[in-house]
Amino acid sequence: MATAPLLEDTQFIPQARGARSGERDEVVPDQTPRLRRARNRLLLQTGFGLICNLLLWFALSYMLGTVLIPYRFQIAVLFFLFILIPGAILMQMNWVQARQGIAELGVVGTLTKSQLAHVSARRVAMRDELKDSEPYIEVMRGQIGDSLAESEREVMKVIEQIGLLIAQSNEQREKIAHSIKSGKELTESTHQRVENNKQIIAAIEMQMQEQTNELRSSFEHIENLAAEVSALTPLIKVITSIAQQTSLLALNAEIEAARAGHAGRGFAVVAFEVRKLSVLTTKAAADMAEKISWTCKRVDSEMAEAQASLEQHESDDAMTHLIGDLSGMQQDFNTNSELLLEVIAEVDASYEESVNRLSQALGHIQFQDVMRQRMEHVQEALVEMRDHMQYMSEKSFDFVWTGKFDRNFKQILAAHLNRYRMASQTRTHHAVAGGSSNSDNSRPAIELF
Amino acid sequence: MAMKILVVDDSVTMVLSLKTTLTMNGFEVETANNGQAALDKLKSGIKPNLIVTDVNMPVMGGLEMIGKVRALPGFRFIPILTLTTESEATKRDEGKRLGATGWLVKPVAGNDLVKVIKQVLPGA
């Protein structure tokens, strides 16, 4: 009998007492008439069965009595037994079933009124608990739903941030690509310019060499000219000497003209003029000598300066330094350009690596979708659980209910196996509930047909 | 010119993450949130070089969409990859029968996805 363990369940006693003390006062009195009605219905069914059997027996006996056949009494007894025995068996079965049902309700005649109230209260409490499971399950579903929505929002934010990062990286990459192009162009341009400058410098150098040579040639010409001018100095002396001799000759002629008296007067005038001319010649020769001397000194001075300048010009390596500096600059620039291009290439490679890693990270974000689908399945299972518990709650006081479910928890759970989409769901199911999967999980995660 | 990929998935996170991944790797991306929306896009004149689709979606699922896409003129040989949590062999075989080019079970790392796309998409 199910009554004994139910009554031994002391955990429920306080709640039953609580029910008697007022918590469920409105429920307990309502159940007793229902239980009485159930018992009375059973007694009525049994009595009705007996009366029907008796009436049937009387009817058959009457019918047999109207026909004159031998052994009618024995036949009537046999009929009676044929009717009575199956009827009695059926009544007994009905009675056992009824007793079991009543026993489950805790209303077996052995229960006292107090015990009946306890059992009734427990049943009510169980029904109420089952009923109260609905908001509980709904809250849990809500929690899962909100968590999913929240995780979806947050994952979206993460993806958006990654998107911004990628956009920024793309922008930088474009700048880097532009820098690479500009850097290469600048290097080539500079190299070309340096080459051009080298040619220009070589041309200038050649031109300057030519100028130096021309200068040297001119210098030599001037030097020769100065020498030739210097060579005129003795001629001045000759002229001076001739002028002095002419002056002496004129003086002698003048003396001789004076001796000749009147006849020599004209000659004296000529002699005077000749002496005057010789004086002028001597003065001009002196001036010439002085000017030639001055000119020679100037030429010597200028020549000395020009010589010094020429020597300095020849020994000056500024142009060589300039060419060396330009070559050095070009070398430095090339080195730095190569270094810069290497850095840019490394940054570019780093970008590729970043893209690769971000792609991987975005792949892992798909986990959110996997989790969402698993959670949605759990939500569906909670709905099934809620509906099943509500059904149990409704049936707990349905005295016509046979105790059979359309689907019990075992069947509901087993049905999930056909609705799983992921191998991981099936694995979890079998790991917890036991059993093994018949599906083929050996196929790869990525399969090309 | 960048290759165009149509991403079909009812999960907004999936759509966004795939769009970001593929854009980052130089593809142009169109999106749809179910099979019917994808078909409407194709009928409106959008001609992608490849389709990546989920299987279980509202309104119209991925497998039904693959069958209908294959029936459209000009889409008989376009590569179609399914990216789904569905790992059942029967579904895979159905996808293969309907004309899917490949079956990828989520989650798939972004670079693996790009590798597969470049494998099935000539010139990518």
Describe the overall structure.
- The complex is a heterodimer of chains A (449) and B (124).
- Chain A is mainly α and 449 residues long.
- Among the domains of chain A are: 1-111; 186-351, Helix Hairpins (Orthogonal Bundle), CATH 1.10.287.
- In chain A, 86% of the residues lie in helices and 1% in strands.
- Chain A contains 10 helices and 1 strand.
- Chain A has helices spanning 3-8, 13-23, 28-66, 72-105, 113-230, 233-260, 265-315, 318-395, 409-416, 423-433, and one strand at residues 446-448.
- The longest helix of chain A is centred in the middle third of the chain and has 118 residues, at 113-230.
- The relative contact order of chain A is 0.07.
- With 124 residues, chain B is of the alpha/beta class.
- Chain B has a single domain (4-87, 94-120), classed as Rossmann fold (3-Layer(aba) Sandwich).
- In chain B, 43% of the residues lie in helices and 19% in strands.
- Chain B has 5 helices and 5 strands.
- Chain B has helices at residues 12-24, 35-43, 62-71, 89-98, 110-120; strands at 4-8, 28-32, 50-53, 80-84, 102-105.
- Chain B has a 5-stranded parallel sheet, sandwiched between helices.
- In chain B, α2 packs parallel to α3 (62-71).
- Chain B is globular.
- Chain B starts with a strand and ends with a helix.
- The chains are: A mainly alpha (449), B alpha/beta (124).
- At the A-B interface, α5, α8 and β1 of A face α1, α4, β5 and α5 of B.
